[in-house]
Amino acid sequence: MPGIGVRYDLTTREQRRLSVVAHRGGTRTLSAYREHDPDACDLSVRLTSGEAATLVDALMPAHHSPNLLSTTDLGLVAERIELSATSHWNGRLLGEARMRTETGMSIVVVLRRAEAIPSPAPDFRPG
């Protein structure tokens, strides 16, 4: 698309046609076309480069950092940090780590096998 950008087309397994126009300025336009009339646009959404990157992370787990779970416009980031069996913190009280005091971060959930432990208290023992 001379002067505009590059267009990428995709036909889904259900024979729905999608396209993304990567504009020269960094924005993207995502379009979905009608099932029975692939030339008629059903939906067209203009995305900033940041919104497009967020959409890619949601759609493409292979491109998504396994440690980075979520980011928002507020600057909040959730990361998954694995505690190894030989970690210095294994078996100690969570409060001993002084995470919020030392780093400004909060532990919002502990994942242990198939169990999620939300808002662990300072007397919680990880590991």
UniProtKB/TrEMBL annotation:
Pfam families: KhtT_N (PF25991)
Gene Ontology terms describing biological process: potassium ion transport
Superkingdom of origin organism: Bacteria
SUPFAM superfamilies: TrkA C-terminal domain-like
InterPro entries: KhtT, KhtT-like_N, RCK_C_sf
Domain Potassium/proton antiporter subunit KhtT-like N-terminal: 1-62
Name of the protein in its database record: Potassium transporter TrkA
Originating species: Streptomyces capitiformicae
